[in-house]
Write a structure and sequence with these properties.
Largest sheet: 5 strands, antiparallel
CATH architecture of one domain: Up-down Bundle
Helix content: 55-70%
Order of helices and strands: HHHHEEHHHHHEEEHH
CATH superfamily of one domain: Outer membrane efflux proteins (OEP)
Number of helices: 11
Strand content: 5-15%
CATH topology of one domain: Outer membrane efflux proteins (OEP)
Radius of gyration: 39 Å
Distance between the termini: 71 Å
CATH class of one domain: Mainly Alpha
Shape: elongated
């Protein structure tokens, strides 16, 4: 008895020391520790649009009031391989979560068996041998059948399985978040391609006017050279300018065709149908809706909380912490319970019997002793993986802050430049109108008028490029702000529609 008591006390002491070590390990490799140590700016350093009011991204794409844009976004999401892969990852994560949950519960298996046998030499069962025919020369036949259930359960003494389950739930939520991130990315990619094509077409119209103007200037210069008013060099320069404008126009046309093919690749639409819809759908370069698409919260932490990629990185950190705990537990004692219950029927010559059967046990305790340093190496690897996940999380947060800041700077710059560009275009238009009046009055020639026209067209090109940049920056800011995704816990973010 004293030896058994000593063995019991040693087991209890071992479990207690293991539990203390587990607590210290959990404190060291705890996701909240890494999350809370991230230094997030208290406010954005770049200018905020619309006075930094609370963000509302729910109706972002609808605000453009462009039916074709919405139709293309919907088509691109149906055809996206990225979204299909994201859906598959959700199913995979859900399967792993179910497996982790099952590890906390007893495993129950049903069993059934039936047999018919002949015993040789003959045997006597009970009093059967004293009866005529009860004992023979090996001709006794026996029938048996059994049905029952068998259970086994490994006790989660140190909470490793619970930690694994929490990690798998986080991974499932992260997979859902990644699906939303894919939706945002696909929509943003499509929108960028759409705006590129639309502004390319508008720029093509400006270049057509420029080419006509340079052709007219070349013709007028040739007349002036032949009349002796201009030097031959002026004629060469005018023809070179005309040729340069022609090649720019052809290059722009090719670029616009390429942008259409990008849209075809993203949506799976027939190119002829897409071109017809692009031709029918009007597009305004200076859409008033782009002046106030959404507001951005002044608190960076709230914006970062609604980014699905940050949420996914946090889930990876939770998983890495659970892996450290699970790996450490592999070197601790394990307690398993087994049991079964069933019904059995047995019959032979002159007898038949049936009844319930059950068993409890064995209760087994496994103590790892020596595995050649495998467990220690696995623990070192798990700890290194946790540190890598923590570094990745910190990097994701910093990158998210940078993306928002970059978008804010570019948006602010585009808005400021737009006013100056509009003022410049207004001045070039006034100069062109004045030169046109002078030509009619005979105080200026047509060559001067065409030069003024090209200055005006150049300012229009600059205005279009800045408007295009502003549209693309809004899309970047929408994406950097999380695209309206809502966290599973509902603490922040907006649900995208």
């Amino acid at each position: 008895m004293p030896q058994k008591s000593n063995l019991f006390l040693m087991s209890v002491l071992c479990l207690g020391l293991s539990g203390c070590a587990m607590n210290e390990l959990s404190k060291k490799y705890h996701p909240d520790t890494s999350v809370k140590t991230i230094k997030i700016p208290t406010q954005w350093q770049a200018s905020l649009p619309h006075d930094g009011k609370i963000a509302d991204l729910q109706q972002f794409w609808q605000q453009y009031q462009d039916a074709l844009l919405l139709e293309l976004i919907e088509a691109s999401q149906k055809e996206s391989a990225t979204l299909a892969v994201a859906k598959a990852r959700i199913a995979e994560a859900r399967s792993k979560r179910v497996q982790a949950n099952a590890a906390l519960l007893p495993a129950l298996d049903g069993l059934g068996s039936a047999s018919r046998s002949k015993q040789q030499p003959a045997i006597s069962v009970g009093d059967v041998g004293s009866q005529p025919g009860g004992q023979g020369g090996g001709n006794n036949t026996y029938n048996s059948a059994q049905i029952g259930a068998q259970a086994s359960w490994e006790l989660d003494i140190f909470g490793a399985n619970h930690a694994t389950l929490a990690a798998k739930k986080a991974q499932e939520n992260a997979a859902n978040a990644s699906w939303h991130e894919a939706r945002v990315s696909v929509a943003a990619e499509l929108a960028n391609a759409y705006f590129n094509q639309r502004f390319c077409a508008l720029q093509l119209g400006v270049l057509e006017k420029d080419a006509k103007s340079r052709a007219a200037s070349s013709k007028l210069t040739d007349i002036a050279v032949n009349a002796g008013f201009f030097a031959p060099a002026d004629g060469y320069l005018a023809r070179a300018s005309e040729a340069d404008a022609a090649q720019q126009l052809k290059a722009q046309q090719a670029q616009c065709d390429l942008e259409v093919k990008v849209l075809v690749a993203l949506t799976g639409w027939d190119e002829v149908v897409l071109r017809e819809k692009l031709a029918r759908q009007a597009f305004s370069a200076n859409n008033p809706a782009t002046d106030n698409l959404f507001s951005l919260n002044a608190i960076p932490a709230q914006i970062l909380a609604q980014r699905p990629d940050i949420y996914a990185a946090e889930a990876d950190l939770i998983t890495a912490a659970a892996e450290v705990k699970s790996t450490y537990v592999q070197g601790l004692p394990k307690v398993s319970l087994n049991g079964s219950i069933g019904w059995m029927w047995l019959a032979g010559l002159g007898f038949s019997t049936n009844g319930k059967t059950w068993s409890i046990g064995p209760v087994s305790i496994t103590f790892p002793i020596y595995h050649g340093g495998v467990q220690a190496a696995a623990l070192t690897s798990a700890e290194a993986n946790y540190e890598a996940s923590a570094a990745n999380y910190r990097s994701k947060v910093r990158q998210a802050v940078k993306e928002v800041e970059d978008a804010l700077v570019n948006l602010h710059s585009a808005n400021l430049r737009q006013a100056d560009i509009a003022e410049a275009t207004k001045g070039y238009q006034a100069s062109f109108t004045a030169t046109e009046t002078k030509v009619k009055a005979g105080f200026a020639n047509l060559i001067e008028l065409e030069q003024q026209r090209r200055s005006l067209l150049l300012s229009e090109t600059t205005a279009l490029n800045n408007l295009k940049q502003r549209n693309l920056v809004w899309v970047s800011l929408y994406r950097a702000a999380g695209g309206g995704w809502q966290r599973v816990d509902g603490t922040s973010g907006e649900s995208e529609k």
